[in-house]
Write a structure and sequence with these properties.
Order of helices and strands: EEEHEHHEHEHHEEHEH
Distance between the termini: 17 Å
Oligomer: single chain
Length: about 260
């Protein structure tokens, strides 16, 4: 098992956005793992809703609120480093490739069109450059596949969709140990995440691009397999300690079931 060890000044944030219709009611979610003033790892969940929005706007809003959650928390945010794990290529490509050109061209795209969601892109740009007013932020951006068993990403999806449906889950704020015991098991286990990120970097197809054989879930001591994510989502959504993962074959399904049973 490959467990992520946070640096003393590192803040890890998972984010996700959702909308029911495009536009339609939407929600965003973020899960941050960070060291408090005493060096103890804590977790904050962030979530919110808009009545009329789009999926891309909610993806951007999740990043913005994830960062703003730490404004004024530390004495000097510029000496900290953020590491984001996001399943939106729109957001990751935007911050890494597009935003500098947009700003140079007065927020006009290469196709001579106004940049969509300019207000949110400007807010992200301002946060990156100014942080809490004491200097620019240091941020690493990682693109990960959605619905692939990455615990932080899956939890953000639950938060975002619950707010989009106007039935928000209770947001957690407390110790990492308490979080893993109550809501998400081994959120910093990189066994799934590391391979998924590496495949993205190499341009290989990841498990998220392959047809699912089934979706395995373990909720309140009950193991289930479903043929669609929608069926699985109904069982795990808003449930504390829920575990779920996409299986690509009968053998993969059996392996996931054994994995969940060992952790129960």
């Amino acid at each position: 098992m490959n467990i992520l060890t946070l640096a003393d000044r590192e803040i890890v944030i998972f984010t996700d956005g959702s909308s029911r219709g495009n536009p339609g009611p939407g929600g965003y979610g973020a899960v941050a793992i960070y060291p408090n003033a005493h060096g103890e790892l804590h977790v904050d969940e962030v979530g919110g809703r808009e009545d009329v929005t789009t999926n891309n706007r909610m993806e951007l809003k999740a990043v913005i609120e994830g960062i703003k959650n730490f404004i004024s928390y530390y004495e000097n945010l510029s000496v900290r480093s953020f590491t984001f794990y996001i399943d939106s290529s729109y957001v990751v490509k935007g911050v890494q490739q597009w935003i500098k050109g947009w700003k140079r061209n007065n927020w006009i795209t290469a196709t001579k069109e106004p940049v969509k969601n300019r207000d949110l892109w400007e807010e992200i740009s301002d946060l990156i450059e100014k942080g809490d007013g004491k200097g620019p932020l240091s941020i690493k951006w990682n693109l990960v596949p959605g619905h692939s068993g990455i615990a932080g990403n899956e939890r953000c999806d639950i938060i975002a969709t619950s707010f989009a449906d106007n039935k928000p889950v209770q947001l957690y704020s407390g110790t990492l140990a308490g979080y893993q015991a109550e809501i998400v098991s081994e959120i910093l286990d990189l066994s799934t995440m590391a391979s998924a990120v590496e495949k993205k970097k190499k341009g290989k197809s990841s498990s998220s691009g392959k047809a699912a054989y089934s979706y395995v879930s373990y909720v309140d001591g009950k193991m289930s397999t479903d043929k669609s994510w929608a069926e699985c989502e109904k069982k795990v959504k808003g449930k504390k300690g829920a575990r779920f993962k996409k299986a690509l074959s009968a053998e993969d399904e059996a392996s996931i079931i054994q994995e969940f049973l060992k952790r129960s």
